Universal stress protein (Myxacorys almedinensis A), 134 residues
Amino acid sequence: MFKTVLFPIDQSRESRQAAEKVAEIVQFHKSRLIIVSVVEAAAVEDIPTDTMASPDAVAKLLQNAKSLFSQQGIEAETVEREGNPAFTICDVADEIDADLIVMGCRGLGLTEEVSESVTNRVISLSPCPVLVVP
């Protein structure tokens, strides 16, 4: 049913927790797994290397995620992009013809902030179903 699964990641705990559900889905459906991470476009040159605005940090994050899935017998492809995270995730989903996006949620609840979250924007803009892992 889910031939291609897109897994957007960042350095959050929620993203790491969603990895387990991604592995289950990919193994069950024998899906192609694409891991995407976005270097935020508003990056400033003197931002520390441990933020999502650093291409080096994003490359390391993607390599670690690929290795984690490899240990579970899952071959994953990685995509690194620059831009607005929500729009970029949806663009990648469209480009690869994703059947499902699986992502973590920061669990902000029903507050004004939720409307501005990356997860909420992806849900609104996605060309395919989005599974949010709490």
User: Anything to note?
Assistant: The chain has one domain: 4-133. The CA atoms of residues 118 and 126 lie 11 Å apart. The longest strand covers residues 32-40. Helices lie at 13-29, 55-70, 85-95, 118-125.
